[in-house]
Specification:
The chain is mainly alpha-helical and about 150 residues long. It has a single domain, classed as Arc Repressor Mutant, subunit A (Orthogonal Bundle). The strands form 2 sheets. Strands 1-2 form a two-stranded antiparallel sheet. The chain has a two-stranded antiparallel sheet with strand order 3-4. The radius of gyration is 17 Å and the shape is globular. It starts with a helix and ends with a helix. The model has no long low-confidence stretch (mean pLDDT about 90).
């Protein structure tokens, strides 16, 4: 058997594509979806206490949502608290020492609730979230499209 034949049979999943390429593609998919909508407060909030300004890009909410969906795909059972820690950063306090601060939980929670309503992720009885079968197929399909675009 040749390796090339086996390579085509195996499906492409999210792990097989670069994170930034996948997140950009899935963010575009969410933006075009009529089920996922931008909250009214999205242009007013900062992503964390440690930030001075709100995000500049208009599509930052979709990008964060795509990133959260990818995180839930790669680590089933992840919750809001763990994602807060992941998106957190150093709070620079002038001349005083820096301290780590968690990210804004409201943004993460609102994204997860919208993804649940789209049936992309679901609650676990033990706490945290995981991908649904439909959500996993959706993300794998987009990852496959990204993979084939990068090959060409």
């Amino acid at each position: 058997m040749s390796d090339a034949g086996e390579e085509e049979v195996r499906g492409i999943c999210v792990r097989d594509v670069a994170a930034d390429d996948f997140i950009a593609a899935y963010a575009e998919h969410l933006k075009n979806s009529d089920k996922f909508e931008l909250p009214v407060w999205a242009d007013l909030v900062k992503t964390g206490v440690f930030k001075e300004l709100a995000p500049y890009g208009e599509d930052w909410y979709y990008t964060r949502a795509a990133s959260i969906a990818r995180k839930v795909y790669l680590r089933p059972g992840v919750g809001v608290g763990m994602l807060q820690k992941w998106y957190g950063g150093n709070y620079r306090r002038g001349a005083r020492t820096e301290h780590f601060r968690k990210a804004n939980s409201g943004i993460i929670r609102s994204v997860m609730i919208q993804l649940e309503n789209m049936k992309v992720i679901e609650n676990l009885p033990s706490g945290g979230r995981r991908m649904t079968r439909v959500g996993q197929q959706d993300l794998d399909r987009i990852a496959g499209a990204v993979f084939h675009d990068n090959e060409e």
